[in-house]
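Progress note, project year one: complex with FE2/S2 (inorganic) cluster.
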Amino acid sequence: MTYIQPDGASSEVEASRGDSVMSAAIAAGVPGIVADCRGGLTCATCHVFVDEEWLERVGEKEPEEEEMLELTAVPATECSRLSCQIVLVDELDGLVVTVPEEQE
Ligand code: FES
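Model obtained:
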């Protein structure tokens, strides 16, 4: 999958099925994803913007994620997700997300 930085630089990362978008980024050292709570849905520092063409395949947010997205450092948009809540499945092979300017 691909992580795009705010300046346009991108990192392609090999991730495994079952990884989250957050854990794959942390394992690969992708900058811009802090993930203070390591997936506990309590920090909102794993915010990403999902590329529009992938939004439908990524699926719906749970209400808890929706609430946490109100606490992101950079305001959330309709493309915003918490990367710890996106689990990689075959349909998401090639997923593209952009990390925000800041997380905290
Ligand atoms: S890692 Fe904390 S909410 Fe995703």
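Helices lie at 21-28, 55-58, 63-68.
The longest strand covers residues 47-50.
No further modelling is planned for this target in the current period.
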